[in-house]
Amino acid sequence: MLMRSEPFTEVHRLAQQLLGGSSAGTWSHPAAMPVDAYRSGDEFVIAFDLPGVDQDAIDVDVERNMLTVRCERRPVDLGDEAQAVLSERPLGVFSRQLFLGDALDTEKIQATYRNGVLVLRIPVREKAKPRKITVSAHTGSDQKVLGS
């Protein structure tokens, strides 16, 4: 139901480990926006960790079956006299793209944001839900046996 659309995820992860971080600016690797996805009943749930991001700095859109989440983590305004002693929290624009399968109803996505976690709930389409097929007995004489 969900496919990652980031072919170089492992390359980015390895580069992060070898280089010990990344430069400021636009981030598009998974470490900057970790995500969990799971199915819960008749809906698909995707949770993105976005600590330190204001709700108004989050943009979610779907084009065809491509889900895109973009956000911006801005620096904390401490005034003109503040001097950075340690700065490890990445700032800037983050984005993730996930390919959603046809079984999901992208017209009915619900998004909530609480405690730094963006949660998207996507219902499974009715036609994609499992259903029971009734087998009826055939009582007619039009059944033919091959080879007779």
UniProtKB/TrEMBL annotation:
- Pfam families assigned to the protein according to its UniProt record, in alphabetical order: HSP20
Q: Signal peptide span per the entry?
A: none
SHSP domain span: 26-138
As recorded in UniProt, coiled-coil segments are: none
Similarity remark = Belongs to the small heat shock protein (HSP20) family.
Which PANTHER family did the record assign?
HEAT-SHOCK PROTEIN 20 FAMILY MEMBER
This protein is called what?
A: Hsp20/alpha crystallin family protein
Which species does this protein come from?
A: Dactylosporangium maewongense
Source organism phylogeny:
Bacteria, Bacillati, Actinomycetota, Actinomycetes, Micromonosporales
